[in-house]
Amino acid sequence: MSQDLFEELHELLIPKISKCTTNWRTPISTRERLVICLRYLATGDSHQTIAFSFRVGRLTVGGIVKEVCTEIWNTLQPEYMPSPTEETWKQSEKGYRETWNFPNCVGSIDGKHVSIKCPKNSGSEYFCYKKFFSVVLLAIVDPCYKITVIDVGSYGRHSDSDIFENSIFYRQYIHGKSLLPDKPLPGTEEPVPHVLIGDEGFALKTYLMRPFPRALATQDERKTNFNKRLCRTRRVVENTFGILAQKWRIFLRPIDCDVDTAIDIIKAACCLHNYLRTKQGTAILTPESEDENVPMRALITHRPTNRRSTTAAFETREQFVSYFNQ
Questions:
Q1: pLDDT at 158
Q2: Is the pTM of this model over 0.85?
């Protein structure tokens, strides 16, 4: 974050994080409160380390982080992560079609485990299959690596499909509705639904495409070509999580605070990610410039699911298979 962007963010937050001066003491300035919060997000240091660096109390650091993260979300979310509209989906579809050669795609979706300290009296609710405690960050990403929608705070033991189908986004935009009206793929005449693309952690739906199982794809070149095209495009969301974790290194270690504060921290980091992507205009990695062998270990993906799919979902995927093998 450049100094100019920091000053702009500070101006937006001054009315929300300022404290009154009393006869008892002078409050910590708004600038220092914001610096403490950003330092915590960017380094992942403990509250005690931050407290030593700024000569304030450890509990004071914890209170500042929670309050400032909440206000970052409340201030930046309406502008940098607003509720998606029809125009939002149209612009996203255009970007995926022109940049990633995947028409009728409006977003790339994935869920990641964010490691947290074991919550008190939580039993195994937050214990995920990777043998650590976590909350799930589910995100839909546009072709420019900006986050369109997030769902944060689900139990680590739940699957991607369960979390997605119980999210507010699903009830508001998917259930009984369509993101955009169906339209034919380029060079074809039959209308095809607009879709999200995900990995094996999601069930195949008419509105969500996933790759073929590897055992089937190795026996059919058409399915292999489809998997290559889908997985190349789906790397947009993987790259976004990688950028998020490298800028905000709080994701590289377990978040040592209660669950509600951890959720506030994750939401604030996602808003700051969009804020910086919008202001800095960072270049987009093209399919040709990507390294397929770079792992991303900060956030852990979900395990695959084998839920049954409808005949309509298989037919929709077959339409994409035919298009990519013309």
A1: 75
A2: yes
